[in-house]
Amino acid sequence: VGQVVAVAKLTSRVLLICDATHALPIQVLRNDIRVIAAGNGCTDDLQLEHLPANTDIRVGDVLVTSGLGGRFPEGYPVGVVSSVKLDTQRAYTVIQARPTAGLQRLRYLLLLWGADRNGANPMTPEEVHRVANERLMQMMPQVLPAPDAMGPQMPAPATGMPQQPLPAGGQ
């Protein structure tokens, strides 16, 4: 939802991702395109700015934190693309995304403390997909289809050896 910018004994001040002065490095979960999402004054949407007209981002794409800059960990859901429009005067695409959190109705937050990765390499795209999907399933299962809704699973490969039933004694 944002970044803690001030703390007191019983309260904290959070700069929300929708704030006009806030920008957040994100990536599209479907194809790993990395972009900057900017707040536009705590309206309902975030704006993805300065994208060429041929950028492969679609309505419904899930946006997650990219981890660039080290301020936010990789793979946390940020929003879902709600609008993609071409600005013909400047040859840019104007993309808006709806935040996954109800930013106007927050009462409690879970704080994430920065982990020291000791100079570890950034996560691979596969690791980001795995982590993001795990977090999405925990936070918003309605975005991803249930595993059984994704179609029939492939049958187990045949080994060429017929299975023999066990005798009644289990031996």
Name the features:
single chain; about 170 residues; mainly beta; Thrombin, subunit H; two-stranded antiparallel sheet; 1 helix
What does this structure look like?
The chain is mainly beta and 171 residues long. The protein is 9% helix and 30% strand. The chain has one helix and eight strands. The protein has one helix spanning 125-139, and strands at residues 2-7, 12-16, 23-28, 34-38, 46-52, 62-65, 77-87, 92-99. The strands form two sheets. The protein has a six-stranded antiparallel barrel. A two-stranded antiparallel sheet has the order 1-2. A hairpin with a 4-residue loop joins strand 1 (2-7) and strand 2. The longest helix is centred in the last third of the chain and has 15 residues, at 125-139. This is Rod shape-determining protein MreC.
Shape: globular
> What is the total tally of β strands?
8
Low-confidence stretches: 149-166
Task: Please give the count of helices.
Answer: 1
In the CATH hierarchy, the third-tier topology of the domain at 2-103 and 123-138 is known as: Thrombin, subunit H
| CATH architecture annotation of the domain at 2-103 and 123-138 | Beta Barrel
- Give the SSE order as H and E letters: EEEEEEEEH
Computed Rg:
22 Å
> Averaging pLDDT over every residue, what do you get?
71
